[in-house]
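Researcher: Please predict.
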Amino acid sequence: MASVSCYYSLALAVLALASAPMAAVAGDPDILTDFVAPTMLGGPANITGDYFTFTGFRGYTMPVAAFAATKASAAEFPALNGQSVSYARLVFPPGTVNPPHTHPRAAELLLVVDGALSVGFIDTAGKLYTQDLTIGDMFVFPKGLVHYQNNKGAGPAVALSAFGSAAPGIVSVPVTVFGTGVDDTVLAKSFKTDVPTVQKLKAALTPPPKKP
């Protein structure tokens, strides 16, 4: 029971951390042209409607167990560069969650298109705002605030998220705290737990090393 209590206390501490902004917020710069034309295409004269078309959302396979996001930001869709807008498709198998995170450069406007989701965000005063959403419902996550989405149902859920930036960025709370090499003792003291508990969390959340 002590181990369960320790994990519970640690979870509450992580959520308390979310009451403060995880990163400085910023926005996209204004451009002085209609759109940003890549030099590789030789300028606007050589651009067609294909450049302004993204087909990455055509069809999808429901993942077996894990939450999955398909992004349409400037990195995947270069025509968005300078337009201060982007999208993501969020797919939730039953019982999955998009863990607490923040977007430092954009608010997020989520639209449920299939199933149901329980969502929430925490403001800088530490207040938690939650809502249960179904098909056709929308919910806004203010810029830079920690938020999450959870599929508590027995069926899958799908949502589309619009962002007020071509590159909204993402900062994962669990990975930022436990998966970036912060000293074990620092984390144990900060969350009032022990080093073995911190090491177990790190083992689960540290991203695998990038292949050369």
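Model: Residues 1-23 have pLDDT under 50 and may be disordered.
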